[in-house]
Amino acid sequence: MADFDRVWVNAHLCTMxxxxxxxxxxxxxxxxxxxxxxxxxxxLPPHDSPVVDCGGAWVLPGLVDCHxxxxxxxxxxxxxxxxxxxxxxxxxxxxxxxxxxxxxxxxEASEDALLAAALPRLDGLLAEGVTTVEVKSGYGxxxxxxxxxxxVARALGRERLxxxxxxxxxxxxxxxxxxxxxxxxxxxxxxxxAPLAAEGLVDAVDTFCERxxxxxxxxxxxxxxxxxxxxxxxxxxxxxSDTGGAALVARFGGLSADHLEHAxxxxxxxxxxxxxxxxxxxxxxxFIREExxxxxxxxxxxxxxxxxxxxxxxxxxxxxxxxLMLNMACTLYRLTVEEALLGVTRxxxxxxxxxxxxxxxxxxxxxxxxxRIEAPAELCYWLGGNPCAGRVVAGREA
Length: 398
What we know:
By secondary structure, this protein is an alpha/beta fold. The protein is built from 15 helices and 15 strands. It has helices at 77-84, 89-94, 99-108, 111-127, 143-159, 182-198, 216-228, 245-251, 265-274, 282-287, 296-302, 322-333, 337-343, 346-351, 378-381, and strands spanning 6-14, 22-31, 34-40, 51-61, 63-65, 130-136, 163-171, 204-209, 233-237, 256-259, 277-280, 306-308, 368-371, 388-393, 396-397. Strand 1 (6-14) and strand 2 form a beta hairpin.
């Protein structure tokens, strides 16, 4: 008699173990928060464990949103309205708007205020089946404000049944007090890493390497500090131009390179060799009306794993739905259904360095998302609506 904590039956499974890994009329069992058995219900071992009838739902690994900026003060809907009226982003920025307006609002907000604002954004993702979410800092741009954002990220994981992975993004932009002294600020960011890591606030270090942000040399300095602290790195890479970001982060064995609209074939080859995941952010492509898209054909040819994420942020991708990003990844970038669903499960977990989730297989963490759909393609097909019928996090029903 098998010893399980709980068994789910009357389900169709997308295990994501080999492509979609479909198992019709399947079952899954958990023990101590991990998957103990998965396969056709007809082969389920005898047991006397509690049973959950899924009612014919499709069960996938819990979804993973591997790139978000969901903690920030205020929003920029007013700037969006002004841009629709013809005011340029440059003019808004000269007037003190743009990212600096978010920095001001975030610096002025208390931890409680930031947490209260972030929870509804997180709740929307959880309602769609997300069980793991990455949260970046990067709107404080000074030690205490960055620390406050990371503390709020940790608090999100205590307030809700979800795994929260943090990325320190102090090198997101140059704060106004360091205007004209970008190198000094990059050095300051590098010095923030060790004390923040010592408090247990940082799981990875991210940087924005771009002509309008930080140079490759400045990025390397931040990455070297991360390496000394024993932290993995990831990079906002080659979004607006080819700065060699894809190859740079690959050289450091980075977890992911994100955006990649202008990444070169050589950069993608370096990523493939290093196992660095490409994180695709179609919400940003859509919202800023970017005409150049990531070279998906080149990624396929190079063998680069592709993840899909919301990039939820107040400026370039105010996207609060990972399911909508599945549709955008398919329609804008022409990903297949299989590629898109791998992008929010197995490959998204890899982009966070998490080898214990994203696949329904024995020994993996029992994170599940249940959907009332007729076929997996529906998750990429519908524009709007939410077919999620339940979540399980580490064996616990949410």
